[in-house]
Amino acid sequence: MRPYVVAWLERFLPASLAQVLAPTWFTMVGVAGLLTLLVLLRRARQDGLDRGAVATVVLTAYLTAVLGGVTIPSVIALVERSIDGQPAQLRMVGMTSFWGYLAGTVGAVEACRRARVPLGWLADRMTPMLGVSLALIRTGCFLAGCDHGKITGVAWAVRFPAGSPAWRDHVERGLVPVTRDVSLPVHPTQLYEALLGVAIAIVAAVITRRRAAVGRGWVFLGAAVAYCATRLAIENLRGDRVRGFMLGLSSGQVFALAVLGAVPLWWLARRAAPAAQGG
After folding, report:
1. Does residue 136 sit within a domain?
2. Is residue 19 a part of any domain in this protein?
3. Neighbours of 77 (CB within 10 A)
4. Domains in the chain: how many in total?
5. 8 Å CB contact between 183 and 212
6. 3-state class of 100 per DSSP?
7. Which of 15, 69, 146, 259 could link 95 by a cystine bridge, Cβ 3.0 to 4.6 Å?
C-alpha cells in the first residue's frame, strides 16, 4: 500500500520528499520504540524510579526484540536449507513477531535484573505502549503488504498493488496474470492486529491509571492472553505461505498456544510458592 501513499503525497510534494515522508515498516518500528521509551521515562519520573536505569532496560528490550525477530528466522532458514542439502548461506528472510517478542522478553528480564528495575512495574507500565507498538508495526506491515490475508469477498477486503507480497503470491499460484496491476481481494489481517493493539492499549491504559494495579505483572499477562487468543483466530485468515507450519498449525499459532499454556502454569506456581514458604 505504500506506493499509493507515495502517489498521494506526490500530489502536494516533490517526488523525492514524498518518498522520504511516506512511512515504511522500518519507520513504524522505530516510531514504536521511540514512543515507548518516552512514555516509560515519564512514568519512571512519576513513580520515583531511576530514569537512566529504565532507559537502559527499554533500549535493551527493543534491540533484542528487533535482533531476535530478524536473526532467529534467518538461522532457522539456514538450518533448513542445510538439511535439504542446499548451500549454507545466511540471509535475511524477514522478521517474525513471536521470535521478537520472546527475545525482547528475555532481554527485558535480564536488563531489569542488572539495572534493578522492578520487572512487574516494567511489564505493567509498558503494556499500553506494547498495544500502541502493535498497532503501529502492523500498520507498517499493511503499508508493506506483508502478512496479508486469504482471498475473500468481504466488503472491507483490500487489493495490494503489483510487486507486493500478496500480488506475487497470487501470480505464482496462477490466480492472476503477471500483467495485472493489483492482487485479488484479501483480508486485511494486518489491520485486524492493529485494531487489537488499539484495544489492548486503551484497556491497559485505563487499568494502569490506578497505581494499585501496577507492579505485579497482571496487566501484562492479561494483554498477552488476549493477544495470543485473538492471534489464534487471525492466523486462520492469513494467506501468506512463508510462516512455517507444524502439525497443521502455523508458527504463530504454535507460539500462541505455548504462551496460553504457560500462563496458567506460571499462575499456579505463584500460588504454590507462598504455601511452600509458609509450610
Report:
1. yes
2. no
3. 18
4. 1
5. no
6. helix
7. 69
What are the backbone dihedrals phi and psi of residue 39, each rounded to the nearest 5 degrees, phi first? -65, -40
Q: How far is residue 158's CA from residue 153's CA, in Å, rounded to a whole number?
A: 10
Residue pair 237/253 in contact (Cβ under 8 Å)? The answer is no
153-172 pLDDT, tens digit per residue, is 999 999 999 888 889 899 98
* Grid cell at residue 26: 522500518
Dump the DSSP string for 67-93: HHHHHHHHHHHHHHHHHTT--------
Closest C-alpha among 163, 162, 177, 166 to residue 142: 166
CB 69 within 8 A of CB 103: yes
For residue 266, give the C-alpha cell. Answer: 506460571
Q: What is the pLDDT of residues 12-50, one digit of tens each?
A: 888 888 787 787 878 888 899 899 999 999 999 988 999
Q: With respect to residue 105, please indicate whether it lies within any of the assigned structural domains.
A: no
- Cα angle, residue 93 at apex, residues 22 and 253 outer, rounded to 5°: 95
State the DSSP H helix or E strand holding residue 245, giving kind and residue range, or none if neither. Answer: strand 245-246
Q: Return d(Cα 139, Cα 218) in angstroms, integer.
A: 27
Give the CA angle between residues 250, 251, 256 to the nearest 5°: 100
Assigned domain for 214 exists:
yes
